[in-house]
Amino acid sequence: MLSWIRWLAAVVAGIWLGAAVFLTVGAGPAFFSPAMLELMPRETAGRAAQLILSRYFVLVQILGIAAALLLFLESRLQPAGGFRRRWLLLVGIIGLGAFVGYGLQPRLKELHRIRYAPETSAEVRESSRKTFGALHGVSQSANLLMLVGVLVHFTWAVRGAEAERKLEG
Length: 169
Fold this sequence. Notes:
Number of helices: 6
Helix content: over 70%
Number of strands: 0
Radius of gyration: 19 Å
Largest sheet: none
Shape: elongated
Structural class: mainly alpha
């Protein structure tokens, strides 16, 4: 049973890592590439990116909850310890994902709408552009931090609790 839980935990972590890498280095930058901007205006590309991001953060939460459930099961079947750092890491990644996905992204979406609304004054448009830029930088930094965290989680999921105990001992 433990081997199946570990296998499933590695699969969940692999899907999570793959999604994070694809979004960060593949899909995300593609929306604002010269080739994409030839097909659609920047405003539409931004709205399309927001749609993908909203679905990505739902996926992040689902995978995070699945990873936490599997870690809980693994810790119950192997009570020798070695799970503290993995728990802290998972809670941090899930919390950061929720902060970005449900805290920052709605605000970024609203700033994007204001920035491109025809009735928006030039002053408000500039203000929303600056605020969007700052919040987008925070969002990108958090995404990079989550990516590193998911990479560590993937490594630990593949190697199991033994790697954690070696770090503690």
